[in-house]
Amino acid sequence: MTTFLEQLSSMTVVVADTGELEAIKLFTPRDATTNPSLILAAAQMPEYQGLIDDALNSARKSLGSVSDVDQVVKEALDQICVVFGIEILKIVPGRVSTEVDARLSYDMQATIEKARKLISLYEKAGISREKVLIKIASTWEGIKAAESLEKEGIHCNLTLLFSFAQAVACAEAGVTLISPFVGRILDWYKAETGRDNYPGAEDPGVLSVTKIFNYYKRNGYETEVMGASFRNIDEIIELAGCDLLTISPKLLDQLKCKEGQLVRKLDNSNPGSSIDLVHLGQSEYDQMMKKDRMASEKLDEGIRGFSKAIDTLESQLKDRLVDLLVENESDDDYKIKSKILCN
User: Fold this and answer.
1) Burial of 177 from C-beta contacts in 10 A (0-12 / 13-18 / 19+)
2) CATH number of 4-342
3) Which of 67, 298, 323, 327 could disulfide-link to 335, CB 3.0 to 4.6 Å?
């Protein structure tokens, strides 16, 4: 009897939701995704300290003789995200998703510029932009930034997606892929209702992704749907057949150990019932989001959480930069170190 993971992989593209290289090697997914929290977690592991140090040294070298520590750290942060992505692409045959700084989520132009910067770093390393998805939060500004980037051949993964309104706007913008967050939707409903358990078929996050998937397929949108942020394998089982599913190592392991018959629940060629085609401008989008308290709260919460992870990582990079300067001091190093210590 084949495992659930093997069966799932035959009907859905399985994506590893982790920044840990060893976990990716273990499960051999086609694609992999990262986010600031995952990069922060990976950066704590001793086995990745060499990658961190390489990024810090590369950032200092690329900026030349500067004394602006924050500039060095921000440059290093971009390089770290790309370095992890490059290492992941040595393992997976498909694509890696690399996230734009969440603190830019409401700034369309800054998001575009950051995405171009990340792609340029990949291309300088010999990685085709076809192998990279730029992750952007599904704010209106983020969606419009992605629309512009797609026209430049920079493919985007719209993340922190919790509502039908966000999904419609993304499809109309022609983005490559969306990542609706199944588990975080469930979290909100459990907290709101006091209900401890939702069977997979009744899970609010599962129902949301199913609605979006059927709407896309019924109306001929090419935007791919990748369910994300799972709390249990029942959610995954109910979305078997979705275009892609990005799954944590813990849940991948559970699927790998589970045997039985996995039934396809979503089907590109035979989607379930769907509502009529919807067109959204910014005012309609804003109105729909305002009425959807869950989506609005979870979007803001997600942006705050990812932003906090970036703040924490930058602080740790600054500390590590001091250590590197102590180990290998020069005149320029003294200038940088002095500014760090004075702050």
Assistant:
1) buried
2) 3.20.20.70
3) 67
